[in-house]
From TrEMBL, chains A, B, C, D:
This is Adenosylhomocysteinase. It is an enzyme of class 3 (hydrolase). Gene3D superfamilies: Adenosylhomocysteinase-like, NAD(P)-binding Rossmann-like Domain. PANTHER family: ADENOSYLHOMOCYSTEINASE (PTHR23420:SF0). The keyword Zinc-finger does not apply. Keywords: Hydrolase, NAD, One-carbon metabolism. Its EC number is 3.13.2.1. InterPro entries: Adenosylhomocyst_ase-like_sf, Adenosylhomocysteinase-like, Ado_hCys_hydrolase_NAD-bd, NAD(P)-bd_dom_sf.
Amino acid sequence: MATSSDRGLARIEWADGQMPVLRSIRERFAREQPLAGVGVGACLHVTSETAVLVRTLQAGGASVSLCASNPFAIQEDVAVALSAESTVFAGGPDAWADDVASVLTLAPRVTLDDGADLLGALHSARPDLLAGMHGGTEETTTGLLRLRALEAEGALAVPVIAVNEARAERAFNDRFGAGQSVLDGIVRATNLLLAGQTVVVLGYGWTGRGVALRAAGFGASVIVCEVDPLRALEARMEGFAVMPALEAAARGDVFITVTGVPDVLRGEHFYRMKDGAVLANAGQFDVEISLADLRSSASSVREVLPLVERFEFGDRALYLLAGGRVVNLAAAEGHPAAVMDVSFALQALACEALVVGAWAPGVHAVPDAIEREVAALKLAALDVDIDVLTDAQADYLSLTSPPRGR
Amino acid sequence: MATSSDRGLARIEWADGQMPVLRSIRERFAREQPLAGVGVGACLHVTSETAVLVRTLQAGGASVSLCASNPFAIQEDVAVALSAESTVFAGGPDAWADDVASVLTLAPRVTLDDGADLLGALHSARPDLLAGMHGGTEETTTGLLRLRALEAEGALAVPVIAVNEARAERAFNDRFGAGQSVLDGIVRATNLLLAGQTVVVLGYGWTGRGVALRAAGFGASVIVCEVDPLRALEARMEGFAVMPALEAAARGDVFITVTGVPDVLRGEHFYRMKDGAVLANAGQFDVEISLADLRSSASSVREVLPLVERFEFGDRALYLLAGGRVVNLAAAEGHPAAVMDVSFALQALACEALVVGAWAPGVHAVPDAIEREVAALKLAALDVDIDVLTDAQADYLSLTSPPRGR
Amino acid sequence: MATSSDRGLARIEWADGQMPVLRSIRERFAREQPLAGVGVGACLHVTSETAVLVRTLQAGGASVSLCASNPFAIQEDVAVALSAESTVFAGGPDAWADDVASVLTLAPRVTLDDGADLLGALHSARPDLLAGMHGGTEETTTGLLRLRALEAEGALAVPVIAVNEARAERAFNDRFGAGQSVLDGIVRATNLLLAGQTVVVLGYGWTGRGVALRAAGFGASVIVCEVDPLRALEARMEGFAVMPALEAAARGDVFITVTGVPDVLRGEHFYRMKDGAVLANAGQFDVEISLADLRSSASSVREVLPLVERFEFGDRALYLLAGGRVVNLAAAEGHPAAVMDVSFALQALACEALVVGAWAPGVHAVPDAIEREVAALKLAALDVDIDVLTDAQADYLSLTSPPRGR
Amino acid sequence: MATSSDRGLARIEWADGQMPVLRSIRERFAREQPLAGVGVGACLHVTSETAVLVRTLQAGGASVSLCASNPFAIQEDVAVALSAESTVFAGGPDAWADDVASVLTLAPRVTLDDGADLLGALHSARPDLLAGMHGGTEETTTGLLRLRALEAEGALAVPVIAVNEARAERAFNDRFGAGQSVLDGIVRATNLLLAGQTVVVLGYGWTGRGVALRAAGFGASVIVCEVDPLRALEARMEGFAVMPALEAAARGDVFITVTGVPDVLRGEHFYRMKDGAVLANAGQFDVEISLADLRSSASSVREVLPLVERFEFGDRALYLLAGGRVVNLAAAEGHPAAVMDVSFALQALACEALVVGAWAPGVHAVPDAIEREVAALKLAALDVDIDVLTDAQADYLSLTSPPRGR
């Protein structure tokens, strides 16, 4: 029978097969050793994809220590397997603060964060280490909010590269990755047939766009709710019905929140919904669907399937998925490895850039050259060739006043 | 802790909530008792959706005995729960032939078949029972082939309604149901990101259309392979690339067979495929991908994830899902309950029609009135109203030579 | 300066370039002369595409005489050019009945009809000619209604092939041809931006499906209205909103009727429409939008652009396109030549089949072999190769009871 | 019979009906008179939509003088009609330079440019007028290149608002407007059936995206060619085939260039194309398809339809549309009025902002508040309501470190 470590290694190997961009970078790193001798501290989900990133950095000469950015997001068998190759602190919820501290004791010169936990702790608890650092990378909007607040106070002491604002990241992670996995989570939890359903998407940011696009791709009729007029207009121009949430409440069969704000669906919406409506959240935190309102008005609550709770209101029932937690992580497997391949390739190259370049303290965008390199590697992995400009065309583009035709 | 029976009842209740058409028929059956005293033998998948059908027939006055059409397609907890309400013979693979015989000993006057097993056995082993029968229904193409062969020999002794040729069945079961669940199965087994992948769909019958449509809905680039020129042309006119399988072999990332014939993908195709290509079958039987050719030419074979086998050929590897068995059943949950709602509503109404009407022996199409009733009930369940012709419009349509405009 | 005949020849040449299927048939006909010495009478639209059909039949040895099926559907320059090669009677509205009679005086042995005008006149006025005929083809639903009425009375004396019921015809002519050209007509007449508009499609037959699909392809939000529950359900499952016309009336920006019945949009609908709504008809006759109701309730009517009339009702105005006539013919160029290529290829092969085969009187479907030949030629024209079954696969398909897998 | 002026007024009225955003701004301008006494010089296409803009500015108190930004883009009847209300200099190609100079003699204090002609002439010929100016707006990429070159030299003396870089402009003008009208132009010129065709889109900027999306919406199979890896990757992830132009050359039926660089299609591409391939340009200038290469290698060239030239090469022929000029202007009617409504609403509000605000010299982005106002007005015109944040939600968004869920 396979041991936990064997199963972890198998998962890592499968993920590796889905991450050709990172593999290609790993091969170059192995030759060039750009991270030779650099200590890297990473606070990320402990998953098979992260393991492939860790191996990539180590191939480039780094010594990596890893703790969990979310103590509930640890694949145990992967943690066991990876421990044989790297320094892993993944003790689970009770050990979380200690695990973060343990990474810091190794005095990393580069940090990879998913919520600014390492950089936050360095600034508050170990400012002595900051001077020796090359810098850090950050993967989340929330983390960037914290780091920019530090920067605004003049307190941010190191350069940080905002990986999650890269254009490639936006497209892959939010639009394609979340678009697929959010609907996957809903289907796995419920086995609903989406064709013929009315799916209401609340929020038309990048993730909302991905969700709306895929829902239409399943044959659903899609309604979009937004507060920003430009986004609302784009949704409408792309063929979706757009209306206020209160009006959509009476029409929807499935509701998906992805706004970043709390209580997007609340009592007044539940009150109008049809019997059998399904509620799912695709936003990062479990605040978008008001559990308080659901509980206070329901006459009974019970689990009818794993991850599906039934809230009864008189002769109607609403079904809440995954307790309102982000449904693609809770009910499916989060982003496909191909999506993390792009994110983590940006991370690896950002890490290299911090080490080999000179950066001022502050939050920096991912350099365009890195975006282009990742895109080019991904195209190569997809066996897609593209054109290059001829010299004459490049010259033409450099003209400030090109001829207006013949 | 929940018992097996409790879990089975919970699954049946959830399915019931997804099957409003059958529920509506059940309510009418309960009032009208059209099947009062009629013995019904059913040989179907033993699932929560089938349980809802059984309850519907029993509400109409029937006494139902059930065995499994596929001894591997038994939800054990549902079988346990349903045993308390009906006669269930679901002993698994070793008991399969006995289970079919057990149903026959109850001398059913109507049969519901999913492969002509009950009707086949009645004709071969219990012809004495045929004279007393109202008739049967059949759910599969394969079953109909067998029954029509009997009919061609003049040996078919009872009327049979070809449920799976109903227009509603074609649309729901094949196009929408299989379209969604086949891709669901592939994503669950692999967590692949389908956007950006080239998906090759072999076979453009109803199921193939559904699969191609949904693959495009996931952002995949779709190639269709067909042998029928009309179907191939339709695929092309609908915007898909169409080419021979040998040419597609070199381009695809994911291959899905759904042709009904054996060895659609074989050595010559495997030989041309890219490293990492994924092979899945959506046809009824596990013959479409040549396992013999895969095994004979691979240098090594091993399972890398549950339901994912890796076949190594020199420096390339191909991944076979679910051993080539139908991927939506093997790796996902088969058709959503909403799909079975339509199929089983047709079954229930066909069963009623056999009992209350006079039918000649032979294979019959589902009467148009039944198709319309099911569609109308489904629309009602979706809260969709439609128009009716005015009297003047109906009169106009009845003219053989209407005025050609003003 | 180009003469009318020159312009006609140029149009015919352009059409010929777009009709590779007919060209391929013409080359075979020229070699094989299947129509040698056969008189063919055709009553069709007099267009460049029809000219290509006439040339094809003549290449096969036929002598063709042509009159106009619709006296308003004559491309004058084409009529002039074609007169030099064939017998053309295209005198326009006042000469229409005489033109039909002129074709009959030539005693055609095969007729090609687009509304049963030639066959109707033969049965009523020249029954003496029927005995010598091979038969006829019919291109319209209306014509088939008339011919089937004759058949029901036992009066239909010749075989007729129902070209417009061919599967290839349905797909091309109605779904792809009309789908594109109806929206083309609306855009040409109005220069409306369809993205962001709500387009209401009344009728979800083949043409309605094409129109709905293309409207969605333009980025419109589409509502479908239907009276048939199965069609309504399909529309809904394909992701469209479905509702009664009265409810849609208040939501639509553009209304397209394609039902085949009169007064689909009438006073009660106009009453609810938004200011600026646009009304177009894609059905064969100009009866679907009630002009009587528009006129009787409008306070003023005037043409604001060619083919656009403004009907004012208090503070709202509705815009009627092309006086309610079929908008793809009136405001655009009808079906693209590539569509007519398929229709006319079916015509040419049906004509050959009538001449070389033995047919009983009555309405007949297009033989499957002809459908397949046309599809195969069209695929060849598109440079698309397809697979063929292996012998083993063909054998498998011929089994009545194939093995159920391994 | 209608006079030219009558026809012009009818066109302006129709456009006005399609431009509700501008109408709404005009109503406010009429009340508030924000441009009272301000001379505005406009160098734009002289069309019915521009006339609606001119009326809007005049309603706000401005006196407007207009010349043509492209001497070939003048709707004569509109010019005649507008002359009765405004100062119009539209003498055509020979008078173009004089017309621009005539506008300058009126010493405009705000300029509206479509290629930087007025601002260019002011800087080079009438620098004396610059000091008195509020500033200008610019509608084209080319114009901005010129103005930014001036700015880089320190020579730009006035503020300029870059209207065509507004997010609303990008979406409407390029994606939705050009997407529809480019394909409309191709269909009008050729009456091609796009379903089943392979359409090659060269360039995947905003316009290329719109063209690719709409081509797929017509049922075409779409190939994208790009030089930028990120754009190429997005095209691929959105489901399009991506390959080098040389490879696409052998596969395409229709080629559409929209890259901004010259000679994108040239001899080596023509050499590989299929017989009958159609070439169209959707880029601003007629340089993207190499006419030189077409002419030098063709054995014969002739016009076969208006706007369609046939270039013969041995046994193949290629068809060039509109001589390689931008096909939506040359063969259709350019952007729909609904598109210009958004562009010109941005222009009108930018003009107001320049007059009422204080701006430094230099090129400025359209203020976000203007974008939001235009979007909100457009939504209102579409009868679309949207949500607003609750106070609690707005507070939550302002937190730098929001609670991470419950």
